[in-house]
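Q: A reviewer asked whether we had any structural model of the full assembly, not just the individual parts. We don't, so I'm hoping you can provide one. Inputs are below.
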Amino acid sequence: MSDPFVLGGIPLTSRLFIGTGKYSRNTLIPEVVASSGSQVITVALRRVDPQSQENIMNYIPSQMTLLPNTSGARTAEEAVRIARLARAAGLGNWVKIEVISDQKYLLPDNSETIRATEILAAEGFVVLPYMSPDLSAALRMKAAGAAAIMPLGAPIGSNRGLQTKELLRILISEVDLPIIVDAGIGRPSEAAEAMEMGASAVLLNTAIATARDPLLMAEAFREAVSSGRKAYLAGLGPVEEAAVHSSPLTGFLN
Amino acid sequence: MSFYETVLRLEQLPYETLWKQFTAEDVNRALRKERLDEHDLQALLSPAAASCLEEMAQRAQQLTRKHFGHVMQLFTPMYLADFCVNHCTYCSFSSIYDFPRKKLGPEELRQEASVIAASGFRHLLVLTGESRKESPTAYVKDCVKILREYFSSVSIEVNPLSIEEYRELMEAGVDGLTLYQEVYHQETYRKLHIKGPKRVYRNRLDAPERGCQAGFRAVNIGALLGMYDWRQEAFFTAMHARYLQDKYPECEIGLSAPRFRPYLGEFNPDSDVTDRALVQIILAYRLFLPRAGITLSTREPASLRDRLVHLGITKMSAGVSTEVGGHTQTGGTPQFEISDSRNVQEIIDMLIANNLQPVFKDWDILTVAPV
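A: Here is a predicted structure for the entire assembly that you could use as a starting point for your response.
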C-alpha cells in the first residue's frame, strides 16, 4: 500500500515521529529509531552540545530527518533565536516551535507561537508549531506559513491520551494542512485512535522513554500508528447510536 | 503583595497541635490527589507520614520520571570571593573569622573556568560572600562576562539585590538565581544573623520574587535545614515555592534541601535533621510541586546521594570545592565542609549504574542577536 506522507518536500513512509528526551542513556536512541521505524526525530537545541563527546547528536542515525525544537523558549523572540541557532549549527531547516510561558502545566502559548511561525516561515524554515488545539489559532498558523499543525492531545508528558479529541476532530476536518498530534499520547491504542481520526502523524516521547521496555514500546507504537492509518484509509463503518432493525416497522410501504 | 503576608499568616498556625492532628489516612488521601493543597502538604510533613515514606517514595519517583525522565542535570559551584560583612553564626565566611580573604581576578577566573569546563560542566553556579565593597554587582558582572565564554548557563548565588541589579546581571548573561532564606522562622533568623545587611529578613525573603520580576529563567530557593524545626521550615519553603510558581508561571522555580554542615566555627544547631526527615522533606516537595526542580548538594554523603537520586532529585552538584579558586589553588577557606567528595567521573558512573543519564547541558543562554 503506497501511502506517502510528504512534509517539507520529504516523502515519509512512517507517520510516527519520536523524541530524544528522558532516556536513561543516549545509546537507546538509535535502538528506538530502529524499533519504531520512525524517520523524523525531534531534539531540543538546549541539550545539543557540540563540544561534548556525549552530544546527543552523535546518537541520532544519519538517515533521520531532524526536527529541532525550541524547548525552553518563553516568547516568540526566544523561539526565533533558538531556531536560527539550530539552523546555524547545521541541524537543517525544520523547526518545531515550542513556546511555553507556563512552567506549571507546560501549555503552549498560541499567540506567541503564531508570531514565531510568521517570522520563521518567512525565513524559509519548515515550521511545525506545537499548539493548544484551537481552530482560529491553527488557521492563523496556516496563513503564517506553517507546514503542519501540531496540536496537543493532553498536557506534555502526561500520558493522558486524547483529552482534546473533539477539538482535534475539528482541526483535522477544517484545517487544510497535515495535523500531527503531539503530546499526551501514552498508549499505542491512543496513537491508533488519533490516526483513525485522520491525523497525518503522531509525535511522542514520554510514552516510549519512560516505558519499562522502551524498544518493545517503540515497536508497539509503530504497529499502532500503522494500524490506525490503515483503518482511516479503509474508511471506518458508521457507528450507529441504536441497533439497526432487521425488520423495519415501515417495510410494508415498499 | 509579597510572600511576607503569607509568612505572617502561617506563623499564626498552632504547630504544636497541628502536626499531631494528621493520620496515615490524610497522607494517603494526599497521595491520591492530582494537585495538593496546603493541608495536604502539612499531612506529608507530619509525623503521620513517617509510616508512609515508601508509598510517598513510589509516587515521587513516578512523578519525577514522568516529568523529567531518567536524567539528572549536573552543575558545579564556583566561589568568586569570600569577603563578607555579615556575621552569621553558621558560616565560615562570617566577618568575625580572621583568615586571608580572596577574590578571583580575571586571570585566576579563566584558569578556574578552564579546569571546571574541561571536566565537562556547562552549567555553573557562581557564589560570593556579601561585600558591596569587594564583590559588588559590577565585579560579579565582569566575572560572568568571562564565564560565559566557558559555560552555556551561569547562575548566581550572591547577596540579595534590587530588580535593576538583577536585570543588569541578566544582560551580562546570568540566567538563574539561587537564594536561600536560610531560616523562615523570624525569631530564629534574628538570632542567627547577628550583624550586617543579612539581618534584614524581609529584604532576603522578597529577593527571589525580585529575581522572578527581573525575568530570570530559573529561581531556586531553600531553607538551611537544622536551624529550626524542620517540618515548619520545609512547610514554609514549599509554600514559598508554590507562591512564586503561581505568581510567575514563566519562571522555573526550584528547591534545595541543604542540611547544616560543619564549618569554621563552633555553632551547633538545635534541630537535628535525620536522613529519614530529609527523605520525607524531599518527597513532600516533589509531591506538592510535581514539576519543580529539586537540587541535591554535596553536603550529603555519597551513600545517601546514591539513594536520593531515585526520590525526586533532578539536579546534583559534583566535583565541588567551597573555597575561592578551589579548583586551581590551595590554601583557601571552605565555606563549609562537603561530604561527597567524589570527582565528576565517579558521579557519572554512579548515575549510569542507577540507570540515569547525566546531563551537563540543558540550556544555552541565547547569544544570537535579538529578533
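A: Points you may want to mention in the reply: Chain B touches chain A at residues 65-71, 120, 122, 152, 217, 245-246, 249-253, 291, 352, 355-364, 366, 368-371 (CB under 8 Å). Residues 3-359 of chain B form a domain with the TIM Barrel fold (CATH 3.20.20.70).
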